[in-house]
Amino acid sequence: MKYCRFEEDGGAAWGLVEERAGEMWITARLDSPWKQMPGAALADPLRLREARLLPPVTPTKIICVGRNYRDHAKELGNEVPAEPLLFLKPPSSLLGAGGVVRMPKVSARVDYEGELAVVIGRRIRRMSVGEDIQPCIHGVTVANDVTARDLQKKDGQWTRAKGFDSFCPVGPVVDTDVTAAAIAAGVAVETRVNGELRQHGSTADFLFSLPELLAYITAAITLEPGDLLLTGTPAGVGPVNVGDEVAVSVAGVGTLRNSFAAEEK
Ligand code: MG
C-alpha cells in the first residue's frame, strides 16, 4: 500500500493513497503508518497533488550513503570507495513534496541528487550480511539529497553542505510493497530538471547492496523504526538555479517535485 502525511485542520494526518482512473487520491486516514489498517474513509477523497504534503516519515535520523554508484563517484573525480561512505542529514532538513527548497546565500552551487530512500521497519543493531533484511524494510520513498557542492569541498566534511533547512525533500508517499529483492533486481531512479531528464539509474548498480549497507551501518549505529536511509545517487548530478523545478522519480513509487528559491530574509 501507499500512504502519505498531510496537513489537515492545522494538524498532521496520515493518509492512505490509492490510484483511481490514473490519478492518485488520499482516500482514508491511517491511525498510524505502522498498522496497515485504514481508518475512517475521507468523506471527500483528496487529490494527492492538491494536498499540502508533509514528509511521510518522522525519523530519529537520516543516514545517507555517498558514492554508491560507480558512475557518480567518477563524475565528481572521486575514487570508488572501498567501504560504504556514510553521512547524516539532520531531521530539520526534511521537506515535503511540493515544498520550496531554499538556496542559501553562502553557497554558489546547489546540486540535486535523486535517490531511493528506505524507511526502516524495526530496530536493527549489528545485523549480519547473510540475514534476511526484508523484515527491516517498512517501505520505500523518494528523496532529493540536496547538496551545497562548493561547501562540501570547502568544509572537508559534509554536515553543513548536506544539512541546510529544506535540503532533504522526501515523498510524496511511502510504498510498503517494494521488496528488498526488487531493489536488488533494480528499481529505476530518474531526475528531471524543468522536465529535462538529467539522471537515469538503477538500484541494480549499487556499489554496496542493501544487505551490505545495513550490516555496515548497524555495526556502528542502531537504526530505529521510521529512520530513513538514502541509498546514494546515480550519475548526472548538477546545479539548480532559482526558479527551477526538480522532479525525482522512483519507478512504481512516485515522483517528488520541489521548486528552488532564494533564501528567505
Ligand atoms: Mg547523495
Summarize it.
By secondary structure, this protein is mostly beta strands. The protein has five helices and 21 strands.
List the helices and strands and how they pair.
Layout: E1 2-8, E2 11-20, E3 23-30, E4 38-47, E5 53-54, E6 62-66, H1 70-75, E7 85-89, E8 94-95, E9 100-103, E10 110-112, E11 114-120, E12 137-144, E13 147-148, H2 149-155, H3 159-163, E14 168-169, E15 174-175, H4 180-185, E16 188-193, E17 196-202, H5 210-218, E18 228-230, E19 238-239, E20 245-250, E21 254-262
Parallel strand pairs: 6-18, 8-14, 9-21
Antiparallel strand pairs: 1-2, 1-5, 1-15, 2-3, 3-4, 6-7, 10-13, 10-19, 11-12, 11-18, 16-17, 16-20, 20-21
This protein binds magnesium ion.
Report on this structure.
With 265 residues, this protein is mostly beta strands. It folds into 2 domains: 2-54, no CATH class; 62-262, Fumarylacetoacetase-like, C-terminal domain (Fumarylacetoacetate hydrolase, domain 2, Alpha-Beta Complex). The chain is 12% helix and 42% strand. The strands form 5 sheets. Strands 1, 2, 3, 4, 5 and 15 form a 6-stranded antiparallel sheet that branches. It has a 5-stranded mixed sheet with strand order 7-6-18-11-12. A 5-stranded mixed sheet has the order 9-21-20-16-17, with no helix packed on it. A hairpin with a 2-residue loop joins strand 16 and strand 17. Bound molecules: magnesium ion (MG). Magnesium ion (MG) is lined by residues 64, 113, 115, 145, 230, 232-233.
